[in-house]
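Standup notes, structure subgroup. Blocker cleared on the S-adenosylmethionine input:
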Amino acid sequence: MPSKVVIPVNGNMSSRRVSVQKVDSILSNRVKGNDEQYLVRWTAPSASTNPPLSWHSIHELARCLEHVQDYLESRQKSLKTLPAHVQTSKKRKSPDSEPEFDRGTSRVVDRRLEETGRTSMSRSPSVSSTSPVGPIDVYNGVLETDSNGFVFCRSELGPEIAQIKIEHVPTPEMLRAQRSKVDHADILIRAEYSRRLHVVPGEKIHLVNIYDSATPSLRFRYIADYVLGDGVFKADLDTQEGCQKCSPHMGRDIGCEYTKRCGCLEYAAVNEAAITEPEMRSEYDKAKATGGSLVNFPKRFPYYAEGTKRQRAGTLVPFYLDSRRPIYECNDKCRCGPLCRNKNVQFGRSVQVEIFKTGSGRGWGLRCKQPLYQGQFIDTYRGEIITDTEASRREAAADSKTKASYLYSLDKFAESEGIDDADIYVVDGEFMGGPTKFMNHCCEPNCRQYTVSYNKHDPRVYDIAFFACRDIPAGEELTFDYLDKEEGEEIDDPGQDAIPCLCGAAKCRKWLWT
Ligand SMILES: C[S@@+](CC[C@H](N)C(=O)[O-])C[C@H]1O[C@@H](n2cnc3c(N)ncnc32)[C@H](O)[C@@H]1O
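Run returned:
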């Protein structure tokens, strides 16, 4: 059985935590004494016009900060539209004001609080049954604790229980109190986001906002790998082949780079410069002219090896920099070993990045904390992989066409592999993903996205990796072109729904996508 909770009049209950599972939403805020408090609406067993509500100190809401953040966002919007008389009323009460409630209940509620005062005396000798009674803290229910000691409010009727109808919330009194400070909430939300950032693998990620007190959504979950949604299947690991003709000792102990027959590079771009024998050249010309197999020709290795200039090691070679060809990396089943230079993106981000508020109408952005070299790998785009149907449903459900979009189609091989549009998977980075979710579009970008595959037999699930397409000084925003067009591919004219582009580049196309 849940146990009844002591309601503090003045006691120190900083260790009390509300049970996040039972919170529906936050409805209002106030400051009482020096304490920032929030009105929690609790889940009721049925759709009720009188769900249980209770006020809680921000410190009790440490596990419900997502709800507090949702509330602060909607409060921000509604404060802007609040009628002037509500904003500036001379008659307004202090933020500590008690919300209006059914007068008939005040006496019994007072009694409840007096009883509580007696109970908490051992913690706070200053509190006694003769203490002035504070504002009502609970409506339509009673506070209890669950078996883990978390507080929640349960529906209950009775003469001792203050009643308030949900359609009367926020009351005019509450609306006035809503203007009171929310600094502690802002600080706790920021601290919680930073805590989550610090456990993201790779170099530490920083968060900077010099414009306001906003923090990116706590509803976002950082993940290191894709999460597969319903109806999404990644090719079985059995279909993944490793290169078998290579070994770690093929040259300078770096694996595949010196082989012209690396199985992983089977479908990679042909290295025409390496076709020196006349017989192979004529076979190659014939295969190219007839659309024949290019499997047995020497291939282009994607990355510079160690031993080249320091700033070049591991960066993309010019051929890949300038083309949109997919990169095929070696994998765990290869014989080339862990140091193979054809393994890069799969090790994840190793550069320091910073999430920052752009202050230019583009929301948050991502920038590098260190200088980056042309061709340097930055990070992959992560998220939930969903079906095309689910992606369309999420797009249609978005409440506004100007809402930020985080959908990225995995359609690189659709044409060559004959994959129907309806069977193309989509990565949604809105609710889970990595810091690259914050990369904005620029018509003259400094990064480019590449297809990186570790399983040449899976054309539907692969990585999207961002590389610097020129040297980038520390502190510059990282951007890419959202229209991931192949060379020479035409760009449609903007439609009516085209989103205006605010990249500010000299050659700006003026819209994000059609
Ligand atoms: C993947 S998100 C990028 C991160 C986003 N700025 C945020 O705050 O979460 C893509 C969204 O950012 C905004 N955006 C990105 N680049 C933009 C640009 N050049 N001009 C205007 N809005 C841009 C658009 O709302 C777009 O749908």
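Discussed briefly. The chain is about 20% helix and 15% strand.
Next: hand off to the docking folks.
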